[in-house]
Design brief:
This protein is α/β, with parallel strands linked by helices. It has helices spanning 15-27, 53-63, 77-92, 107-119, 133-142, 168-172, and strands at residues 5-10, 30-40, 45-46, 67-72, 96-100, 123-125, 146-153, 187-193, 203-212, 229-237. It folds into two domains: 5-125, HUPs (Rossmann fold); 140-237, no CATH class. The longest helix is centred in the middle third of the chain and has 16 residues, at 77-92. 35% of the residues are buried.
């Protein structure tokens, strides 16, 4: 039996990450040694998703994998790349060969990730790449994953779309120009239960908050000129 390749999984906490990690574990080709998540240093929340650090920690504990948190403050590409390089070189020295992402079809984002990894001699893996997003969300729900919208882009979705359980009704009611998986940045999610988890991550709903768009170059930049800001639903850990 061949030895598994060691990999880092770039974990956002959302549904695409959950489904991608599930598929990687089923394939049993890679040994995922750690989950790596980028957080805002000031707010201690997952970048773009706005999910609290404590809930991220509970996700990792329920999945049963170590968690590495990469904090960024400025949100620029330069800062992100510098911090990421430091983490990647550390794990490369420990035998990691691959970094896994949940991206589906954004070519420029894939190229960006692959170019950064090539600089440190690592390769990228995209388990969901070019899969039909309508079929992916159906598979996600069929597998009994559970997820909540935690952030929505106001150019296409509204306040009532955030803090909502994703189910067939939610997907069917999406505007026609919204990707079923939100792959263009229309919405982000927090996955709290499913076949990856030993037990559900418990949380309660806090307030909904609107944040105007800050114009800056970042890995998660959304170029849609109609975007004025984002609605967030604060999810609060419960003990």
């Amino acid at each position: 039996m061949s030895k598994k390749e060691k990999a880092i999984f770039c974990w956002s906490g959302g549904k695409d990450s959950a489904l991608a990690l599930y598929k990687v574990r089923l394939e049993q080709k890679y040994e995922v040694v750690v989950l790596l998540t980028t957080l805002n240093e000031t707010f201690k929340r997952i970048s773009m998703h706005g999910v609290r650090e404590a809930l991220l920690e509970e996700q990792a504990a329920s999945i049963g994998l170590p968690l590495v948190k990469m904090f960024v403050k400025e949100g620029t590409n330069t800062e992100y790349e510098k911090e990421m390089e430091t983490v990647l070189l550390k794990y490369k020295a420990m035998g990691v060969t691959t970094v896994i992402f949940g991206d589906i079809f954004l070519e420029d984002l894939r190229s960006y990730r692959e170019n950064n990894l090539s600089k440190v001699g690592l390769k990228a893996l995209f388990p969901l790449w070019k899969k039909n997003t309508s079929e992916l969300i159906k598979e996600f729900l069929f597998l009994n994953f559970k997820t909540i919208t935690c952030c929505v882009n106001d150019s296409l979705l509204k306040e009532q779309h955030v803090g909502v359980e994703i189910d067939t009704g939610f997907i069917n009611a999406l505007p026609s120009d919204v990707d079923p998986c939100g792959e263009n940045g229309e919405y982000h999610t927090f996955c709290y239960d499913g076949p990856l988890f030993k037990q559900p991550v418990m949380f309660s709903f806090g307030e909904k908050v609107y944040r105007p768009l800050e114009i800056k170059k970042s890995d998660e930049e959304i170029s849609n000129s109609l975007t004025k800001g984002f609605w967030f639903c604060d999810l609060v850990e419960t003990n």
